[in-house]
Structure formats: C-alpha cells, structure tokens
Amino acid sequence: MAYLWDFAPVLARSDLLIEGLKNTIEIALISIVLGVVVGLVLALLKLSSRRAFSYPATAFVEFYRNTPPIVHFFWFFYALPVVTSINLDPFVAAVLALSTQSGAFYAEVFRGGIVSIERGQWEGAKALGMSRSQLMRRVILPQALTRMFPPFVERSFELTKTTALASTLAYADLMYQAMLVNSETFRPLEVYTTIAVMYLLLLVSASALARLAEARMTAYRT
Amino acid sequence: MTYHFDFGLVLQSFPVLFRGLLVTIQLWVPSIAGGLVVGLSLALCRLSKTPVLRVPSLVYIEIFRDTPVLIQLIWFFYAFPIIIGVQLSPFVAALLGLGLNTSAYAAEIFRGGIESIARGQWEGAKALGMRPAAVLRRIILPQVFKRMLPAFTNRAIEVAKMSSLASVLSVHELMYQGRLLNSTYYRPLEILTTVAFIYFVLIYPGSYLSARLERRLAGKD
Question: Across the interface, do B199 and A66 touch by the CB < 8 Å criterion?
C-alpha cells in the first residue's frame, strides 16, 4: 500500500485537539476527586459492623463493578432525568457516571489497604490505650496509605481512559474533538493516530509522575 | 415520585435484547481466546533476552494499555482499513480491537505469573534434560494458569464490559440494542436499567468466582 500520510490538515486543527485534551484532563481530575470521596464513604460503610450500612454499600459496589461504564453514562444522561425531572448536561452526567463508577473501585482499594494491616498492629495500638480514631490516624492509615497508592494510581488511569466515553454524550473531550476534526478533514488515520499518541503521552507522563510520588512516599522504608 | 415504571415494555423488549446478548457473547469469547494465545507469545517475547523481540512487544503492550479502548475500536474501524486497503465490518473491527487489547493485558498477567515461579524450577527441569519449550509447557505454565486464574477471570470480566463499546461502531450487541430500543420507545429508564441488569447477570458469576478463587489461593500460601 502506498498510502500517503498527511498530518497537515490535522495540525491545522490542532487547536480543537488541544482544547479536547484540556477538557479530558479537567473531567478526569474532577472525577478522581469526587470518586475518592464516594470511595471513602463506601469503604467506611463496608467496613462497618452494622449490616444496615455494609450491605447496601456492598450491593452498590458490586453493581458498579459488574456493569459496563457506557451503560452508566447513558443511564445518567437519559434515564436519571426521567426519574428526577432534572436535565443534566453531558458534562454533569459524565462526571456523575465516572465518579460513582470509580468510587466503587476506589472503595475496594481503600478497604483492601486498611484490612491489609496486620492484626498485631491494631492490638498493639489498643494495648497502648489509643482510641479507635487515634489508632486509625496514627497507626493504621499512615501504613495503609502507602499500600493503597499503586492500586489507586491504577484505578485513576482506568478512569482517565474511561473519560473517552463522555464523547458518546457529546461532551467535547479529546475523543469527541477528534471526531469533529475527522469529519472536517476526512483523515481518520492521521486524526485517530494523533489522539491515540496524545492519550499515550498523557498517561505515560502521569505514570512517570506517579512513580516519582511513590518513591518519595516509600522512601522511609529504605 | 409518581413515575410509572412500564414493566410490560421490559418484557416486550426482552427478545431484542436477547439477540444483542448473543452478539455480546460472540464478541466476548473469541476476544478472550485470541487474547490469551497472542498474550502468551507476547509475554514470552517480553521476557526474551533479545532486544529485537523484547522492545517491540513492550511497545505493543504499552500502546494498548495506555490508550482508551474506545479509540482502539474506532481506530480499527476507521483508520486501519486505510492502511490495509480492505474495509472491515464493524464486528470484525470490534473483535480485532477487543482481542488485541486483551492480548496486551493477558501478556502482563502471563509475565507476572512466569516471573513468580522460582528460578530453581527452571534449573531443575533443565538438569533433568528438558528443552525450554517442554519446561514451559509441563512445569511452568500449569502453575502460572493456576496461580493467575483470578487475574484471568478479572480480565474476562473487563472484556465483557468493554464489549459494550462495540455499540459505538453499531455492532448489534446488547448495548446497541438497548440504545436502539431507547430511541424507538423513549423509555430510557426501563430499557437502560434492564440492559444494566442483564450485564450484571452475565458478569457477576465470574466476579464472584474470581473473588472466591482469590481467597482460596491466598489461604493456601
């Protein structure tokens, strides 16, 4: 095949793609923050010894972990307005879908980190006369946080990749902008390859940052 | 709330959704099977000492793991045909995207598994006069499969969820049928909730099994 690659038309519309990249980063960051909040609440509910708290939280987490994200996006955008009679714009619907979905996964990350701390640590802290909140704050959480970090980063990367689904609700993220540029330039090969590289660079640089942060967090071990 | 939930419509749309479910399974099973086969060869290349094998497989794995699946599917449908000069059907493009994506993740699972087997086993098998291929087949892989079964099950769950993205290429799978019904009846609450429920029923047994397996394997060590 003698296909001539021509990136010039794509470069001419690079302003659209840059804007899309900004929107992708924006929606990812907002959803990570909200997802962490949702995840913390769910993790605490799941760890509760009262079934009235732990069962609904488990059901919520299991539901979100076992259904595809695109269904959540469509559900929040099309079905929720029917129940609540509030119309959501694509951005809000996408943020809701992303943060509840990743919240379910973050909950498992937080819970896993907390329960991974050995029994002896809990008992030792109790024997020293610490209250439950002191024990959590001074003994368990500092250790659990460094253990949670790698799976937390992994989940956040998954979330960032899932933001591409917001394009199906016509939110102007990188994916959606690429579709626009494609319909203007008729250069699908160049457009979609370009944005694939943009996502790749975004995630690879984020992962380098994450490794740096992890090295600092675990520096006390060496 | 005084919304009237129309159960009749749910029942009525079941045959259409069921047809979608069959297509979902047709996407799901071959993607996993193909992904495992390609993934194993990728993992062996990735572990190879020869840079000619190691570097390309590393690049391949990272490209598929660090870009959204949606882009991969769209790329295989709209961009890839330009390179090969043959138009792919949406189904084939989706299968290619899902299968290759799975292969990249499966490769990392295989690699983790192979690396977790103690070096002494390789040396012992070699000392018994086995060729590397025989060591891999008879000693290493059976242990890798057992140890990594939860990870493979989790991957299978992810693939089932990812297959819903094929609806964007208008492959007539479950999510597509749901979107179609939604635009016909304007009953998003009933239809989309039913679609979510069907996915849950399809996927939950796998994730339950993987959680139990994980606990059992953790207990053994």
Answer: yes
This prediction has a pTM of 0.90
pLDDT at B221 over 60: no
Do the domain assignments include residue A103?
Answer: yes
Ordered by where they begin, the domains of chain B are: 7-220 (1.10.3720.10)
Query: For chain A, how many structural domains are there in total?
Result: 1
**A-B contacts at Cβ under 8 angstroms:** 118
A154, A167 Cβ separation under 8 angstroms: no
Residue-wise pLDDT tens digits, A2-38: 688 889 988 999 999 999 999 999 999 999 999 999 9
In three-state form (DSSP H/G/I as H, E/B as E, the rest C), the secondary structure along B66-118 is: CCCHHHHHHHHHHHHHHHHCCCCCHHHHHHHHHHHHHHHHHHHHHHHHHHHCC
Contact B186/A at CB under 8 A: no
Query: Count of residues for chain B?
Result: 221
The domain in which residue A102 lies consists of 8-221
CATH number reported for the structural domain that contains residue A143 in this entry: 1.10.3720.10
Task: Give a yes or no: residue A41 inside a domain.
Answer: yes
Tens-digit pLDDT profile for residues A180-221: 999 999 999 999 999 999 999 999 999 999 999 988 888 877
